[in-house]
Amino acid sequence: MTDEVKETKSKLPLIIAAVVLVVALAGGGGWWYFQQQAKQQAMAEVAQNVPAAALVKKPVFLPLKKFVVSVPGDDRLHYLMMELSLMSYSQDQLDTVGEYMPVVRNAVITLLSEQHYNELAQPGVMKPLQEALRGSIQTVMNDMASSKGIDQVLITKMVIQ
């Protein structure tokens, strides 16, 4: 009987060590799993805030030089000089816009000539004007080439006299 007690006592530290090892491995595995879940959730939040194209490619720009348009005012005609840059995440889209440049320039000039001097002279006009220009260009590009054409319009220079 003493041999059986010795064998049981000698196995007890081995069993305790095995249990401690299993618990430690399970705890480490659980910690690693939850860290990976948190990392994936953070990446998903970043992906929602940034356009998908921006994660893959850098933006490319197409400058549109000097538009000079007369705009009506209350007592006389005024002149608007503007330069734009079109931004897209696809060079192919900007190449398509370049092929239809006369139509694009016509859409910009038409939109600008419909504006009133008092509206253009107001503070905060840039953002709505950029959105209107983008919508006008995208409509023309969709009609002409079945392409949305651009992602953003940037006003790089604007002078009203």
From TrEMBL:
Its main location: membrane. It comes from the Bacteria. It is found in: Cell inner membrane; Cell membrane. InterPro entries: FliL. It is a single-pass membrane protein. Keywords: Cell inner membrane, Cell membrane, Cell projection, Chemotaxis, Cilium, Flagellar rotation, Flagellum, Membrane, Transmembrane, Transmembrane helix. Pfam families: FliL. The chain crosses the membrane at residues 12-34. Controls the rotational direction of flagella during chemotaxis. Belongs to the FliL family. PANTHER family: FLAGELLAR PROTEIN FLIL (PTHR35091:SF2). This is Flagellar protein FliL. It comes from Photobacterium alginatilyticum. The lineage of its organism: Bacteria, Pseudomonadati, Pseudomonadota, Gammaproteobacteria, Vibrionales.
